[in-house]
Amino acid sequence: MMAAPKVKVSREEFAQVLSYWLAKQVNTQAFKETAKDLDLKDKPQELFGLNLKNKKDSETLAEELFALNMWLIVYSCEIKSEDIDKRKEYLDIFHLIVYQIILEGTGEDFNHWKLAVTAKYADYNEAMKTESPLGPFWQLATVVSNNMSRKLNIDALIKYQISVYVSSTIEALLKLINEYDIE
Q: What is the pTM of this model?
């Protein structure tokens, strides 16, 4: 069976594709759908232990999942793209699009914002490097759940849900990236 031809896109166009994908993942409706998909405790109004109907919980969830999904995009692009210069360029454009269009220029300087995002990425990268019998996604889930709850004793089921979310998101991103031939 022949593979489908890849779509030829510029680096700018691919950065836009990534930003559209991000926007589809980090909104209230997407959170509700994910909560239903991952519901293991008969609490479809909760996602990763946070109540979607509670404003503070929803904001905490949105903030962490926004950063996590941005990192998942970067991580997946690093796995899939061998051309470092090309990857750096389209990821720089992606970050600029996120800052200018999705966040509408948060009120802080772009370089300051990008440093804050990079610090979050460093935490995720460190978690992925940590040796664990349960694997790197478990360690990443620990960091993510700690960021969201600030509790020391996180429910193993929540870590499992986050691990499933991370692995399925990476799988979807790798499939998406593979559909494009980036010039």
A: 0.89
